Fold:
Amino acid sequence: MELKEKLKELKLRILDLPNSTNRGYEFEAELKDHPIGNQHIYKLHYVQYYRMGERYGWHENNIGMVDWPCSPFMLPEKMSREDAFKVLSYLTDFVEAKLHLRPCSYQSVSTLDGILNLERLGFTRPHSDPAPTEVLSLFTVDGRVQLFKKSRYYRNYFEWYTENVTLDEVKDIYQRCGIEFYDVKFNNRQFVKK
Structure:
C-alpha cells in the first residue's frame, strides 16, 4: 500500500471516531458500475442519505434516508437501452435548466418521471406491477454518497446518465425510431400534456 493510500485510510478512520462530527468525506465517493441484466422494464429511483442532528454531537445511528422509487416504464419501440439513457439524460438536463432545479434533486427526478407519461415520447407504463427482478433501477444519488456505497442498492448501481447530450442527438435517436421529437413545454412549472 502506498503512503498516500495509508494516509487516506488513516484520515477516514480518524474522521469516523466517536468524538468526531466532521463527516464531510461522506459526500465524496466514487461510484463504480455494477453488472446489469437484460431487463426491459426500468424505473427512476431517487436515493438521498443524510445525517440527522449532526450539529448536536456524534450519534452512531443518526443516518436518515429518502428512498423514492418512481413508476416502472418501458422504452419506446426500436430504441436501444443506450439511446434511451441518452434521451433521459437530455430530459434531465432540460428539466433542471428550464425549471431552475438543483441537479440530482428529488424535484428533478419526480418531474422527469411525470414527463415519461407524455405519449408522444414513446415511453410506456406496464399494465401490471412487474416483479422487482424484472425492473432495472436508474439511480439518482444525492447527499452522503459514501453511505449509499454501504447500502443494499449499491450492488445494482450503474451510471446511466450521459453529460451534455444535445437536442440534435435526441432528434436523431427519435428519427431512427420513426418518431418526431420536440422539446417539452412548461406552463407555471408544470409540463404541458400535448
User: Anything to note?
Assistant: The first helix runs from residue 3 to 15. The chain has a mean pLDDT of 86.
